[in-house]
Every structure is written in C-alpha cells, then in structure tokens.
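I am still getting used to backbone structure tokens and would like to learn alongside you. To get us started, please write out a protein record for me. Once you have written the record down, we can walk along the chain together.
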Amino acid sequence: MNLLQSRHTEMIKAEAARLGFLFCGISKAGFLEKEAPRLENWLKQGMHGEMKYMENHFDKRLDPTLLVDGAKSVISLALNYYSDEKQADPEAPRISKYAYGHDYHHVIKSKLAQLMDFIRGHIGEVDGRAFVDSAPVLDKAWAKMSGIGWVGKNANLINPKAGSFFFIAELITDLALDADIDPGKDHCGTCTRCIDACPTEAIVAPYVVDGSRCISYLTIELKNAIPGEFKDKMDNWMFGCDVCQDVCPWNRFSVLHTERAFEPPADLLNMKKHEWEEITEEVFARVFRHSPVKRTKFAGLTRNIRFLGPGTES
C-alpha cells in the first residue's frame, strides 16, 4: 500500500465532503470495455433521438485518458438536490425538482474548481479537468464503478442510503489515488415500479431507456415539435420529469439538500396554471434568471405548455 497515495485519497474525500458533496468515489482511469457495446447498440437503435452530439467522440466517452493526458484517476462526485417543496397549484404545469434553483452546472463547476485548487495547493502540480454532464464522459458508469451506487432499471444511479436525487460530476486527473473496488450492487430486484409508471413508456426494458420517448428529452432536448403520439401522455410536465424517481422505493431514503443555490424562487412555486399559460418573456427572464430552464428558452417552454393544453398544437 502506498501510504502517501492513501493520504491524498483521504484528503480529497474529506475536502469533497466539506464542499457539500454527498458522495465521493474514485476509479482507476481506463477503457470502459463493458460499456462500449451497450453505448454502440443504444445509438444504433436511435434511442438518442435528436441528440446527435451523443454520436460524437465515441472513443472519448469510453476512455478518459483521451480527455486528460496521463489520466490515472476518475474522481466521481454526487451533489444532492432533493427537495420536498411543491408547486402551490396542483394543476399548474410541472417542473422537475432539479430545475427549482440555480443551474447546477454553474454550482457544481464552482465546487469542482475549489476541489482542484485544494488538490494543487496541498499535493502539488496536478493536471486535471472537471466535467458536469456536458462533455463526453459516461458519468453513471464511473460513479457505479467507484461504489457510489448502482444503475437502476430507470437508468438512474441509485444509492441505497440516499436514493437517486443527486447530480453526478467528475474530476479526471493524472494523480494516482486509491480506487474504490466495491462497485455498487444492484438492489432493484423484481421491482418494476419505474417501468410501470413511465407516462410515455420510455423504459423499454429493464435498464434501457429510449431517450427519444422520455419526457425530459421531449421537453428539453427536442427542438422540433413534440410528436402528436405523446399528446395527453406528458403527465403535465413542462420541463423535465421526476416520475421514475418519485415512484422508486429507494427514494424514501432521500434527504433534503442543504445547497442554498438550489432553493426555488417564490415566483416559481406560487404561479398558477393560468399564469403559466399566459407567461411573458419578461416573467420567464425574471423567474428563470439563474435556472437551467433557460436551456429550453422562452419559445421551448411555451411550446411545452401549449402541448399540455387542449388541442394538438405544439
């Protein structure tokens, strides 16, 4: 055992906890051999829909050494976003919990920058890059390998002590660290609640999600009109969807997040159904000033809201 390497590992995990991360797991950087055929098959079946960027950088998605020269370790981190707050009007179009507060990309990147500064300040010159689901990194595969949890039948990462309402991010570095060698064991068992509950039947088989049918894809990633086959199947979601997580038994262990940046503005929770249906660009800009909802833009959100209403206009 390399005592200095172990010390570095302990220091990094302690700092990650101090920064507010729920979990920190470490894997040895290398080619994800088991993931290659799964990803290739998923893409060949067109389950990525219009997300053509998923076809790019195939090799980089599977090999972190192509993203960071001399990469030795993948540090996987999870940040809790679970909230029990709800929109006041039960008939109002719904927004996924993850989009209640500030854009998580900015919040997490700031924490990763602080963690990288800590590593360089306490260990020395270390090369590395931070990733928050906007780069070719298979974050769930790395998080599973590092022992943070298992990939459930709904394709979300699940932790037996905290459920699945958390974001995943990575630091890929050329620093050798102690790898966690206990990959998350699958505890889904015979449960099919997520499969049975999916409004658009996007979970086409256990552990396989047809992204092109997922409500999150339809309301965020899809830039063209929402296909008419999904009319009256959107479960009143205008941005994202939490159904497969809300019904998951493991989320009874979810704990409330403590990240102030994820607190929802009062306007978001208190808007009534008719206010959403009549939303203006000015209101959109105010309510979602720091929100990931900006990604869909005003035109995208109003398209989604119209699609939820009577008729077939999208």
In short: The chain has a mean pLDDT of 94. The CA atoms of residues 5 and 160 lie 28 Å apart. Residues 3-84+97-173 form a domain with the NADH Oxidase fold (CATH 3.40.109). Residues 104-122 form the longest helix (19 residues).
